[in-house]
User: What shape does this take?
Amino acid sequence: MSQTQTAQTTDVSEVSRTVLLDGQAPSGAYVACPTFSQYGFGWLRDGAYCALALESVGERESVVRFHAFAARIIEARAARVEKIIAALDAGAPVASAEWLPTRYRLDGTEEGDHENGWPNFQLDGYGTWLFALHSLYGTDVPAELVPGARLAARYVAAAWRTPCYDYWEEFGDRVHTSTLAAIAAGLRGAARMLGDAGFDATADEIVEFIVARCVSDGVFVKGPEDDRVDASLVSLATPFALFPADEPVMAATIERIRSELASPSGGIRRYLGDDYYGGSPWVLLTAWLGWHDRVNGDEAGYRRAVEWVEGAVSPLGTLPEQIVSEPQLPEFVPQWEERWGPVADPLLWSHAKHLLLLNGAVEPWS
Ligand code: BGC
Assistant: This one.
């Protein structure tokens, strides 16, 4: 996505750009949400999408600082990563406290409480980070980032078969199609950045696994043990380009997401049966599908998404995580509000996907 392009703008674009830049800590980490009780951390998944978004509007300096942060925190854990890889190679168990976390404190330290804390073992963020790093630098990665990138690639290449929590931090006893896709895309990037074809071979193996085990009834599904579609499956085409948009299973998946996960007003939900804040439509998912539509020439779908996403600006003038006025399971909205307060707003990842909706490219693996 590093080609020169003129950024598309709307009145809300400037808000999105500012929210992302203001949400970057001195360390280089992007906070998930500056105000929500549970989200005052830097997630690699959210952060990598913030980096792709700011890259798409030419904010290179911020993106460079994020990648330096991510490479630094991973390299700082080199001994731990080597231990995990050695255990996986030997078929030995890895203690839950050993796995790298999905989110870090903004200064790069960890929360520490692995047993009772957040569902912190998630692999997709490390893959998405490698993908975003390759997007910025191509084959010209600064030498000081190479050790962190190589460690991350070896980590996900060794661990991809291990059940972990998914994009939505649920179902920790399973493997997940979207997680596998992020890992495969990261490894494709790593193979190119590091000149190591072995990572491409592992990516191919993962894609074969997805085709063999994660398709049901002609569509990609959440995972081998879950036949539901999940809106994050858009990632298999946009931006990861593991499958072309017109590949029949991919195209059928997009159509099923569109018909099954849309709210009455056209916002996109995560998956059927989701109860988090009522399983309402998510701004970032609606933007994601619209980004896919734009890069595949569906102008009407793109326009609808821009209208919906920009119509979701809250009284604060920013984009929240979800629109709780359209829940699929209404009784859960007050339960979550009581537990954690009103829905996260501004959510940086929502603003990132808004900029990607307008400007994101999809880089083919040429
Ligand atoms: C979502 C994650 C996200 C995190 C921070 C969670 O509710 O399920 O996907 O990374 O919030 O934004």
Remarks:
- Residues 211 and 352 are 29 Å apart (CA to CA).
